[in-house]
Amino acid sequence: MLLSKTQRIVGISLAVAVLILFFVFRPSPLLVDFGVARRGPLQVTLEGEGVTRVNDRFVIAAPVTGKLLRMTIKEGESVQKGSLVAALLPPELDGREYREAASRAGSARALLGEAIARQHRVALTLAQAERRSVRYQNLFREGAVSKESFELAENETRMLQKEAEELRSGVDAARYNFEALRAIVDRHISGKPVNVLSPVDGKVLRIHEKSERLVAAGTPLVDIGDPSAIEIVIDVLSSDATRVKPGSRVMIMDWGGEGELQGVVKSVEPAAFTKVSALGIEEKRVNIVAVLGKYEPLLGDNFRVQTSIVLREAPNVLQVPVSSLFRGKNSWHLFVVENGRAVDRAVTIGMRGTFQAELLTGLREGQKVVVHPGNELKDGMQVKVRE
C-alpha cells in the first residue's frame, strides 16, 4: 500500500524529531582531569616545622645574689675562655651581719690553726714510728726481737700514715672554709664585685639582663655558644617518629635564603612530650634532631625552618598521582581512561609519597588516569579529558 505524500512528510518529520530529541537529551561525557602513569624518582617524606639551636649552649647564671652591673658585652660579640662577661656587686652587710661574719671567720681561722697543729704533732709521731719500724726490722733479722714486736711496729706506722692523710684533708677543708668566710668580710670592706667569666670560647648568643638590677643567685645572665655548630629540632607526632632513623636525609626549605639546605638526622629523642595543636587537641610529639651537612652563616639560633625528612626513596619507579587513588573493598582502585570511557581498575601500590604513589601492578606506563574522581563517576561512563 503506497503512502500518501502527506503521510511520508509526517513520518520523516517524526524521525527527525526523534533524532533531535536523542541528541538533545543524550548524556554528555563527564569532563575530568587526568594524570599519566610515568616512571621517575619517588620519595616518601615526612614534613615538619623545625627550630635551629646552637649545640653545646652554655647558660651562665649569677653565682651570688647581688646587684648586676650594666653589661659591657654585646650580642654576637666573640668571647674567649676566662674573659669577663658580667659583674655582680653583693649586697653590703649591716653591722650585726658584719660582726657575725667576722666572728665566723675568726672561728674558722682558729679551727685552721688547730688542724695544722694536729697535723704537725702527728707528723712528728709518724717520723718517730718510722724510725722505730726500721730499727725493729733490723733487730728481727738478727733475731733480737720477736716477729710479733716487729709487726706491731709496722702496724703502728701504717695507722699513723692514715691519720696523717686524714689530717691533711682536714687542714684543706678548714682552709677553704676560712677563705670563704673571709671573702664575705673582705667584700664588705672593699666593695669589690664578683666577676663572672666565660667558661669557653664562643659568641654571645643572648643577654638575658642588660641593665643594672638586683638579681638572685642562679638567675640566667648570658648564653654563650658556637653559632657554627647549628642543629635543627623538628617535632613530629610520636606515631610518625617511629619511621625516622638516624642518618636519614633531611631537606631544609623556607629558611630565608636561596636554595635548599641538606642535612641528616642525628638522633630521635627517646621521650615524647604533650603539645596542644592549633585546634586545641593534645598531641604526643617527639623531637627529631638533625645537623646540617654544611655550615650556613645566615642561619642563627632559634630560627624557624620547614623541613622534609626522607623516609624512603627510589630512583626509577612507575607512579601515578595520589589523588587518582581511592579505596575499594579489598584493594586500591583508580579510573583508567580507555576509548573515551572511565574504566575501574584494581591496582597494587608500594611507596606512597606526598603527591605520587608507586604502582606495582594494574597499569602500564603512559596510560591516562582520572585524578580527583567524583562520586558521580561510574565504571564505563563516557568522559572527556580536560586539556
Q: How is this structure best described in words?
A:
With 387 residues, the protein is α+β, with helices and mostly antiparallel strands. It has four domains: 28-42 and 315-385, conserved putative lor/sdh protein from methanococcus maripaludis s2 fold (Beta Barrel), CATH 2.40.420; 46-55 and 226-314, Efflux pump adaptor protein, beta barrel domain (Elongation Factor Tu (Ef-tu), domain 3, Beta Barrel); 58-90 and 193-224, RNA polymerase II/Efflux pump adaptor protein, barrel-sandwich hybrid domain (OB fold (Dihydrolipoamide Acetyltransferase, E2P), Beta Barrel); 91-190. It is built from four helices and 22 strands. Helix 2 runs antiparallel to helix 3.
What descriptive keywords fit this protein?
about 375 residues; alpha+beta; conserved putative lor/sdh protein from methanococcus maripaludis s2 fold; Elongation Factor Tu (Ef-tu), domain 3; six-stranded antiparallel β-barrel; 4 helices; about 30% helix; elongated
